[in-house]
Every structure is written in structure tokens, then in C-alpha cells.
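Re: [help] complex structure
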Amino acid sequence: MSKKKKQDPDAPKTGKDLARSPRGFPDRREGLIHAQAEMIDRVTSVYRRWGFEALDTGAFEYADALGKFLPDDDRPNAGVFSLQDDDEQWISLRYDLTAPLARFAAENWQTLPKPFRRYASGPVWRNEKPGPGRFREFLQCDADTVGAPGPHADAEMIAMAAEAMRAAGAGDSEFVVRVNTRRLLNAVLSGVGASDAGTHLTILRALDKMDRLGESGVADLLGKGRMDDSGDFTKGAGLDPEQVKRVLAFAQAGRETRGETLEALGQAVGTGEEAQAGLDELTAIARALEAFGCPEGDVAFDPSVVRGLEYYTGPVFEAELLRETLDEDGNTVRIGSVGGGGRYDDLVARFTGEKVPATGFSVGISRLATAFAISGNIDALNGPVVVLNLNREDPSDALRVATELRNAGIRAEAYMGGSGMRPQMKYADRRGAPVAVMVGEDEIAKGVVTIKDLKEGAKQAAAIKSNAEYREARPGQFEAPRSEMIARVREIVEAAE
Amino acid sequence: MSKKKKQDPDAPKTGKDLARSPRGFPDRREGLIHAQAEMIDRVTSVYRRWGFEALDTGAFEYADALGKFLPDDDRPNAGVFSLQDDDEQWISLRYDLTAPLARFAAENWQTLPKPFRRYASGPVWRNEKPGPGRFREFLQCDADTVGAPGPHADAEMIAMAAEAMRAAGAGDSEFVVRVNTRRLLNAVLSGVGASDAGTHLTILRALDKMDRLGESGVADLLGKGRMDDSGDFTKGAGLDPEQVKRVLAFAQAGRETRGETLEALGQAVGTGEEAQAGLDELTAIARALEAFGCPEGDVAFDPSVVRGLEYYTGPVFEAELLRETLDEDGNTVRIGSVGGGGRYDDLVARFTGEKVPATGFSVGISRLATAFAISGNIDALNGPVVVLNLNREDPSDALRVATELRNAGIRAEAYMGGSGMRPQMKYADRRGAPVAVMVGEDEIAKGVVTIKDLKEGAKQAAAIKSNAEYREARPGQFEAPRSEMIARVREIVEAAE
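Output below.
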């Protein structure tokens, strides 16, 4: 980033120009907020039932605690939002929930229950280029066990991830948690003689594209390179055909069941020490998954799973939504990955010097909520009952009626804008109110209220041809004695739910 | 702030030094998290029942949209956290929930229901010096009506604030919502001929101290000035004794009931236009509060209420907890103000040019949760049932038992750390587990589990004198057939709740 701070004096921002939110920080309205809150509730309920406890850390961490190199530059840590505190230390907004957990665990290790099992949910921030569906602020919901060395702790994360997917609303065959281990990947990398980090990365990136490019595309990327449809050439890992074959045999060792995949992997990875350790790890995970009663279809061993982050040291896993949904424009959308995790035995050691084995799982709440919102699992929410005020002098009667409804447990409000009937009806309509209750001096004198069933009214109105007829018919509208108001309103509200 | 960025090469941060959170951003554990979530839930439930809808804006706003002067300096907006985006615009973390609402309402005014009624809850950030109980990140929970000109919209906020206090757990006489209006304050200021902003501020600040300094202290601050106990002198507003008397008569016009206070205020503020407008406003609010069924003791008219923020233009209100509580050290603590609000008719106009009347209320969730947490309303939470694994070779049986318990709806986990009995018992203890279930090869062979009631065990153990006796007695511990496990565990868990 450039150091200069331009402020064009010819183009000061005033008035409406000011009223916009920064790119990548979208406003969220009622429907999405409820979908996300509901998802967090469902997922954390699973984490809680499995014994995890809540922990919230602050939005900021010291930049050096986030574990990236801190250059003496204007803005350290590309990819995170950082600023200098008044004591000149750089602080950064968390980019995930794992790094703050590692800091917390290291800071409090002496007094924590060991292992320390915590869940957390909240926003994380990434200073990246925003785009469609790519935000710079989004919600994650994590569970981690710090201080647990065994593969059954990884298996617990995996089984719990599957349960979280089901709790979120995914049924049989609508999702899968794919599992692999870094040990097997490492064994294969050594097996083909790939020793430098660059080649490792090229191979792992190629495997990660199996879904999209298929066998021959990945084979190109493992070998000399690949020309895509637009003519762009991506340099490959430079493996010879025999090596490419071995890597592909590994990546395609996925079978119908976990047991069959284990057998196929045994063939594909050879007999080295690291290969055996990886196979033992997956075998122990398979046994634990069985003890957890985890259905075969929920979790698959998939040797093509890579996971991006550098810090995983053992098993890695990824939760994928399989079902296709329609977006608002009717296009078919496949959400894909909605969460992932793995074992990270080195993260706490950065602070303590002592190796602390840890494993965790993170759900991307925004993606999950979007998935289930666009597929219609989240119903449109009704608005409140709106009490319209026909008395221009004094709103007290309308306030009293709204209070009566609320006291009866009905969500209700009196109209708070200026006077006039038309804006009041328009308001009730825009709020999605199921019922409008009208109160004026006439109604009070007669001991009644006028109730309008807005959904029924809209239905009847559709069949009416002229304005005159409409005014005459007053569709969906009726008078009720004040003593019956609550019962009549409740009836319509409940029918609308 | 200085521009230099020191990094002392002699004192690089490594290891444990790194493991600390930035000042003013405390970590929150289980108990406080639940207390805060519960408070948010209770308060937003009230807002929802009154018809408000949810809106969440992002953490960042453009600095210029937050409405403070943006100097061409390294860090604009003292008091907020700001940084430069990659397009060189300054963005700031929100310091309250009202400024983002004003931006949102201006941006979307055409399509919103009018009035627009939203609630929001979430963290806000202030770049201030942290101290005991003063954080740089805290939770607010707001409701606002944008586009509502009438005093009954203010009255709704006030009545709802009282209901929120009750929902939070405050009973009769344990809280009060104090109400005043800027119009009366302005009338009094004009009445004593105070015309410059500096004198206004000095007078308002003096009134704000009535609680702490009493009549004579405030009289000094309104007049020539005040010497405090330490000998420090604060310059006064320079009013003459007659003027001081008038201001004090106003500030002390609070009476037992809202009606009596209105009468006393009528005497104290004279007959000017602004005074009459203020009295009319409070009279209309009193009438609306009655229509809302708001108890006399919940809301008081109090002419000494000032409220700090510059942007209020009409009624202002403050929710105060009256009851005293004991903190952890047994000291008496009075929490005081836990929320406030008022009418701000000019805030949206900054964007649109058009005056949009608005009123709102904000609850400080952190303070409220602290208030009820330290007074014992939030019970200590039980930990999960912990299944201890006595089989060093294979944890499957322990995993299976934990799964069985979870499937029966009991919060349970298998111990995930290394082997050994002692750390397992210590773990169950630190987690506050009500029950430990022990599973080993012996138990499996006999078709039983060993159940330990940890609370009962601790009670019995207190009466035991020697280790030998303890090992013999195994306090609180018994064997149960596997088929009875769920029933026996559930019994103990429910008794512990």
C-alpha cells in the first residue's frame, strides 16, 4: 500500500454520498439474521451436548500473537486488518477463531481443565478483495480440544461435524464429511521424491482440483503442466509419468465404505513408516467413528482432501453440502464446503515452547445459513400486528390497544409515524403484518375495533375489479367487540404462521 | 500519536511473552458469556414483542460516515479505531449502534417501511484508555424508531426501556427510567441568559453532578466555581445568585409522581415558547406512558438528566439500576446507569439533507450482565458428564458410553487426554462435572459401569480422615448395570441442577 494519504479537496463527500457501507461489509436484514442465529444455535447446541464449554476472546489480538511475520512496514500482515495501538504495538482483528484460542490456552494453561474443550462463535475479519458472496466479515462457529493427542479426539471432531450438519438441516446423502491425513499426503510426497516446499504445494494444489478438473487435468498439473480452455498455461509439478500414476492411484483410492478405502489406501501408499502411521491413524479414526455410531454415509475417507492452512499436522477434514439448491434467480447452486478442520499440534507450542496436541473444527455459519435460506428452509418471517390510529388528536387509544395485545403475548405495535390512513396501511403492508387493527373515536364510542386480515384481504382483493367495489367490500375487514379482539387477532396470527 | 514505529531489536517478543490479549479486550468465560447472551435474549425479546425488526450492520463504517471531522492526520477520529482501506479511504470500527443505523436508514430510505423500527445487538469499540471495568470492546443492545415525530414514540422507548429492565431481572424499586427534555434545559439556559456553547456545557455538566455533589456543590459550579476536598478549583458558569437559584429550582423540580413533577416544572421554567413546548412534550409523554400501562415507579421525570452526546434534540432518558449489590470482594457496588437514549432528529439529515425525526434507546449489556451476575442471579453452570476411560489400549467403550448418554439427551463427553486415572478425575473436577462414569475391561465383561456422584462424593469425603479409609469407602461411587446407567446418571444430573 502506498504511504500517501490523498484527500481530494475538489470532491468532498457530503450528503447522500456518505451513506454507504465499506465494501465487503454488507448489512444484514431480519431473514438472514434469524437464519444465522438459528444456525449458530443449532451448531453450538451440538458442541455443548458433546461437552464443550463457551469461550469468547476479543476482536483484537496483538499482531505478533497471530503468528505471522511482522515487518517494519506501514501495514503488517497482509490479509488481516491491523492498526497501531497508542503504545505503538500493532493489533489485528482476528482472521479466525483458532489463533486466539491458541493464545488463550497458552496464557492460561496452568489453570485450565486439560484437555481444554471450548466452542466459540462470532465474526472474523479478512482484509481481502471482496466479491460476490465473498465478504470481509463473516461468522464462524468452532469447537476445539487442546491437549488431546489421540486419533479418537480427531474422530470426535469428525463425528460432531457430521452431527452439526444434520442439526443444520442436512439429511441423508445431502452432506459428507471428507477425511484425510497429512501423514499419508507426506508419505506420498516422499514416495515420489518431492522434497522442496514449492513442489509439495504444487502437488497438493493439483490434488485439491480433482473435483473440478478430473483425472486428466490433475495428471497434467502433476506432470509438465496444463493449458486451460482460455489458452492460459499453468506450470506443473514436473513428476514423471510413473510418479504421476502413483500420486493419482493414491488420490483416487476413495471407495464406497471407510473400510474399503483403508484397504485401497494400503495398496496405494506403500510400506514406509509415515505411510503406516497414516494408515494406523485412519484405522483408529474408523474404529472410533463406529463407537460414536456415525453412519457410513456421513463420513468418507477421501485422499484428495488437502485443506489450505499451513498449520495442520495430522488428520484434516472438510464438511461439504452435496445437495443442489436454487438461488433467488432460479439458478442451480452447489454450496460445497461449509466447514473444515484438523489436527494442529504445533500452534500452542509457539507460545509455550511445549508441544500441545490439539484438534478442531470450524463451521462457516454465513455459508450454511445462506445454503438453507435459499433452499427455503427458513420461512419468511411475519411482521407484528400493527395498530392503526384513526384519531389525529390523541394516539392514546391506539397505544392502549397495542399494549393489550402485547400483554396477551401477541407481537404488536401502534403506528408511530405521522397521520393519514394511506401511509399507515402501506406501513402494515411493508412490515408483512398479518393483521391491522384500526382504532378511532367511533370504534371507542361503540366499544369495538376494526380488524383487517391482511393476507385474506389481499386474496379477496385480487378478485375485485373496481375501486368502488373494493371500498364497498372492504376485503378481509370486520368489526369485533373489544372483548373479543385478542381472540380474533390471535386466530389470524396463528393461521398466518 | 507519534509517527515513528519503534521495534526494539534487543527485546523481541517470543514464547510466553506473546500469549496475552491487548489491553481492554478481555477474554470471557462460560459464566459471563451465558449471562450476556441471556441478557441480550431477554432485552431483544422485549424489543421484538414491541414490533421492532432485526438489523445488523458490519463492524466497519467509513470514517466520514461516522460524523466526526476527518483531519488529514495519521489517525483520525480520536476515540475510535480507524485504519486506511486499500483504496486509501479511512474506515472505523463502529463506536455505537446508532451512527450505523443512521447511515443505513439514509442509504435505504426509499424502500424501508416508514417509520423504520429496528433493534440490534453486538459489540462496539472505543479507542479509549482501558481501566477496571472499562473495556475497549463491549456489547450494546439498541432499539430505534426512525421517521417518528411524535412524543408518543419517545414514550414508547421509555416504557420499553422499563420493560427491558424488568425482563433483565430488576423488580419494583430496583430501577428507574429518568426522563427529561432538551427543550426544558434550553429554556432554562435562555432564561438565565446563557448564550454561548461553553457556558451551556458548564451548566449542563454542573446539573449532571447533582447526585454526587448535592445542591451546594452544584450551586458553586453554577456560580463562581468550586474548590474540591483536594484543593483543586473548578471554574464555574459565572451565573449570579438569582440565576443560580432559578437553575436549581428547575433541577430540583422532581417530585413523587410524574404529574406533580409536571406541575413543579411549570412553576420553575416560566412561560417562554420553548418552555411551553418542553412542558407539552412531557405532558404528552405522561399521557402515553399511562396508555402503555407503565407503573408510576418505573419512570420518573427528572430535570437533572442531561445525557452526554451532542446529538439529542428533544426528550432524553436514562435507565438506572438502584439496588446495591456486592462484588466478589464483598464491597457494596451500585451499578447506576445501564442504558439511555433520546430523540435525535438531525442525525439522518446529515446524509439526506431532509430532517428525519428519530428516537431510540440503548442498553449496555455488559454492565447489565455484570450487575445480575455479581448479585447471584446467574447460577454457576454445571459441566458435562465425563466418561473416564480405564482401558489404555482402546478408548472405544468409553466413546460408546458417552454416545449412549448423549443419545439419551444427557450432555456428556469421553475423556480425550492421555491415560492415567488421576488426571481424568482432576479433569472431571475442574469441569464441574456432576457425574463421572468409569468404563474399563472389567466393567464391560461384567456388563456394568462405575458411576461416581461427584458432589455427593465430595460431601462424604469431607468426613473421611485417612487415605486408606477413603480408598475403602469410595465415597459417592457405585456400580450399576449398563441397562440402568442412563436412569441413574440422569437422576444425579437433575438433582445437581
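The mean pLDDT of chain B is 88.
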